[in-house]
Amino acid sequence: MVPKNTKLARPVRLQSILAAALDASERKGYNKVTRADIAKVAAMTPSLVAYYLGPMHALRQQVMQEAVRQERLAIVAQGIALRDPVAMQAPALLRQAAVSHMSK
Questions:
Q1: Are 54 and 81 in contact (CB under 8 A)?
Q2: CA separation for the pair 80, 97 (Å, rounded)
Q3: Of 48, 62, 63, 77, which sees the most CB atoms within 10 A?
Q4: 71 is in which domain, residue-wise?
Q5: C-alpha dihedral over 76, 25, 15, 70, to 10 degrees?
Q6: What does pLDDT average to in each consecutive run of 10 residues of the chain (104 residues)?
Q7: Which long-range contacts (CB under 8 A, 24 or more apart) does 82-89 make?
Q8: Quick one: CA dihedral 19, 43, 85, 26, positive or negative?
Q9: How far apart are the C-alpha atoms of 89 and 8, rounded to whole Å?
Q10: Best CA proximity match to 21, nearest among 43, 52, 45, 42
Q11: pTM for the whole thing?
């Protein structure tokens, strides 16, 4: 977590927000997480989350892309269950592992 008044370069801030979004998505659920949930984890305002990640459909797309990149099985599994296009295009082995994770 970054102190509230700390100025960070855009890529660093974006990565920090995406990390918070992944954590919030694992806790609350990929399709149920809100900007407010992410903002709370990232210690910032929901409007700043919106500034960096855009509207909810774009936010969810970026979260799923990052979940696939980091192989976050719980989030990818939720994406597969929701037929999320990014999750459905994940590598086959990752999709298999995510589906196995769902059945546990």
A1: no
A2: 11
A3: 63
A4: 10-102
A5: -20
A6: 62 92 96 97 95 95 97 97 97 96 82
A7: 82/30, 82/31, 84/30, 84/60, 86/61
A8: positive
A9: 32
A10: 42
A11: 0.87
Q: Is 54 domain-assigned?
A: yes
Query: How many structural domains does the chain have?
Result: 1
Any domain includes 88: yes
16 falls within a domain:
yes
Q: Are the beta carbons of 48 and 63 closer than 8 angstroms? A: no
pLDDT tens sequence across 70-91: 999 999 999 999 999 999 999 9
Residue 3 lies in a domain: no
| pLDDT confidence of residue 66 | 97
